[in-house]
From TrEMBL:
Ranges where the Aspartate/glutamate/uridylate kinase domain occurs: 7-301
Record-linked Gene3D superfamilies: Acetylglutamate kinase-like, VC0802-like
Enzyme Commission identifier(s): 2.7.2.4
GO terms under biological process: homoserine biosynthetic process; lysine biosynthetic process via diaminopimelate
Domain CASTOR ACT: 403-464
First-tier enzyme category under EC: transferase
Statement: the UniProt record of this protein carries the keyword Nucleotide-binding: yes
Protein name: aspartate kinase
Length: 480
C-alpha cells in the first residue's frame, strides 16, 4: 500500500442514503482531482437496510434474520428476502440513471441475495436432521446477512464514482466465497497491500468477515470496529466519522437547535460514556485501538462540510472543569432484586451478572445497598421478562421487580465543579422532576440521573439549561 499519512473516513447509513451530499460534501469537498486521494472510505449500509436484513433496531420488528431464526416461520423469511431484492433494486433505480449501470448494480446485489437464499435453504434442510442444531449456525447466518447491506452500498458508491471520473476501488471485506477465514488484522493487511492510495479511492464494506466474528462482540456496531482497525493497520493520520448531525451539547430536537453547540473538542473518555448510553460516537473497543495508537478521531456533519466538527483525542482535558454534553437513554429497564439474605453474603451481584450475560443483556449502570441490587439495562421487554424468570429461579426468596425508566447523564472530560450536584438537583426539583436514583463516580466524568421515562426530555432540557447554556459562548470559542 502506497501512502503519505492518509485519513480513514466512515460514512453513516443516513448520510449514505444521500449520494449527492456524500459526493459533494465528503468525496469532493471542493478538492481538485489530484487531492481526491490519500483517503479510505468505510461505508455503512443505506439507511433502513440493516433493519430489513436483521431486525428493526428500535422496534424489534423482524427482518430476514429474525424470521429465519424463528422456527415457527419456515417460509416467511424467503418471502422477506424477495421483498428485500425489490427494496435494494429500487434504491439502485434512484441512484443510477444509466440503464446499463443499474443493470450491473441490480445483478450484483441479486446474485448475492440469491446466493444467501440457496445457502439458507440448504441449512434449513440440514437442520431438519437431529444431529444438526440451527442455533449453532445462527451467528454465522446473521453475519452473512449483515454483510449484504454494506456490500450493496460500497459497490454502488464505487460504481457511481467511477462513472463520474473518480478512480474508486470497491474493497469487499464481507468474505463472499472466500476460501479461508483470517484474523481481522491479517485480512485488512491483505486487502490494502495492493491499494495505491496516491491514485485510488478505496470504498470499503463496513462489515468484515473474520476469524474473531465481529458480530459476536459488537453486534450492529461492527462497522465501527472495521473502521477503527483499518485506521490502525494502515497507520492513518486521522480517523473521521461523517454523521447526519454534529456531536453537540445535547439533542437539538429536544433542546432546540438554537441552544445546542457542537462540542469542538473532547476525549475518548467522554466518547466511552456516550457509548455506554447507546449514543455511540465510537464503540469503546473500537476507540481503544485508535487511542493506543494516538490516532485522533473527528466527528463531522455530512451536511455542514465547512465546519471542522468535533476532535476526539486521548489527552484532551477542558481548560477548566465543565459539562460538555447532556445525553441519555429512555429505553431503559430497572431490574431490582431485593433479598434480605444478600446482607453480608458476597457473590450475589456475580450471580445476577451471569444471568444478564446468559441472555446477552447489557447494563448501563447499577446501584446497591445492604439488601438490594438494581441493574439498569438497555434491552427489550421480551429479554427482560426472560431475565426476570431466570433471576426468580436463581433467587427463590427474593422480590424481583422491573420498571421502565430513563437515564440522563451530564458528561465532560473534567466535571470536578463544586456545587454541580446541588445545582443539578435544584434544576430538576424546580421542574418537579423526581430523581429515582443518582450515580456519580470519583473519576468525575459523568453524573447519571435516573428519572421516570416520561420525564426524559424535560430532564435533558433542565440540565442543559443550567449546566451548559449559561456558558455557550465559551463552547463556541472551543468549537471554533
Amino acid at each position: 500500500m502506497t501512502s503519505e499519512r492518509h485519513t480513514v473516513e466512515k460514512i453513516g447509513g443516513t448520510s449514505m442514503s444521500n449520494y449527492e451530499a456524500v459526493r459533494d460534501n465528503i468525496i469532493l469537498g471542493g478538492r481538485e482531482k489530484d487531492d481526491l486521494y490519500q483517503r479510505i472510505f468505510v461505508v455503512s449500509a443505506y439507511g433502513g437496510v440493516t433493519d430489513e436484513l436483521l431486525e428493526h433496531k428500535k422496534t424489534g420488528e423482524p427482518g430476514v434474520y429474525a424470521l429465519f431464526a424463528d422456527a415457527e416461520s419456515d417460509w416467511a423469511w424467503g418471502d422477506d428476502l424477495t421483498k428485500l431484492i425489490k427494496f435494494l433494486t429500487d434504491i439502485n433505480g434512484e441512484l443510477f440513471g444509466d440503464p446499463m449501470l443499474k443493470q450491473q448494480a441490480d445483478q450484483f446485489i441479486t446474485d448475492r441475495i440469491e446466493g444467501v437464499r440457496g445457502c439458507l435453504i440448504d441449512l434449513q434442510r440440514l437442520c431438519s436432521y437431529g444431529q444438526f442444531q440451527l442455533e449453532e449456525h445462527l451467528l454465522t447466518v446473521r453475519e452473512m446477512l449483515a454483510g449484504i447491506g454494506e456490500a450493496h452500498s460500497a459497490f454502488n458508491t464505487a460504481l457511481k464514482l467511477q462513472q463520474e471520473g473518480i478512480n474508486a476501488r470497491f474493497v469487499d471485506l464481507t468474505g463472499w466465497r472466500d476460501n479461508e477465514l483470517l484474523p481481522l488484522d491479517e485480512k485488512l493487511k491483505q486487502a490494502f497491500d495492493a491499494v495505491d492510495l496516491t491514485r485510488e479511492l478505496p470504498i470499503v464494506t463496513g462489515y468484515a468477515q473474520c476469524k474473531e466474528g465481529l458480530m459476536r462482540t459488537f453486534d450492529r456496531g461492527y462497522s465501527e470496529m472495521t473502521f477503527s482497525r483499518v485506521a490502525v493497520i494502515t497507520n492513518a493520520r486521522e480517523a473521521i466519522i461523517h454523521k447526519e448531525y454534529h456531536l453537540s451539547s445535547a439533542d437539538p430536537n429536544i433542546v432546540g437547535a438554537d441552544k445546542v453547540v457542537p462540542l469542538g473538542r473532547t476525549n475518548y473518555d467522554v466518547a466511552d460514556q456516550l457509548a455506554n448510553l447507546g449514543m455511540e460516537a465510537i464503540h469503546p473497543r473500537a476507540g481503544k485501538g485508535m487511542r493506543q495508537n494516538e490516532i485522533p478521531l473527528r466527528v463531522m456533519n455530512t451536511f455542514e462540510p465547512e465546519h471542522t466538527g468535533t476532535l476526539i483525542t486521548g489527552d484532551y482535558v477542558s481548560e477548566k472543569p465543565q459539562v460538555e454534553i447532556i445525553a441519555g437513554n429512555k429505553g431503559v429497564f430497572a431490574i431490582e432484586v431485593f433479598d434480605q439474605d444478600m446482607q453480608g453474603e458476597p457473590g450475589s451481584d456475580r450471580r445476577i451478572l451471569e444471568v444478564l450475560g446468559r441472555f446477552k443483556v447489557r447494563f448501563i449502570s447499577k446501584d446497591t445497598n445492604a439488601n438490594t441490587i438494581t441493574h439498569y439495562v438497555d434491552s427489550t421487554l421480551k429479554h427482560v421478562k426472560r431475565v426476570v424468570r431466570a433471576l426468580k429461579d436463581e433467587f427463590p426468596n427474593a422480590e424481583i421487580s422491573t420498571r421502565k425508566v430513563a437515564i440522563v447523564s451530564a458528561i465532560g472530560s473534567d466535571i470536578k465543579i463544586p456545587g454541580i450536584l446541588a445545582k443539578s438537583v435544584k434544576a430538576l426539583a424546580d421542574e418537579e422532576i423526581s430523581i429515582l436514583a443518582l450515580h456519580q463516580c470519583m473519576r468525575q466524568v459523568d453524573i447519571q440521573f435516573v428519572v421516570d421515562e416520561d420525564a426524559y426530555k424535560k430532564t435533558i432540557v433542565a440540565l442543559h439549561g443550567v449546566l451548559i447554556e449559561p456558558y455557550n459562548h465559551e463552547y463556541a470559542i472551543v468549537a471554533a
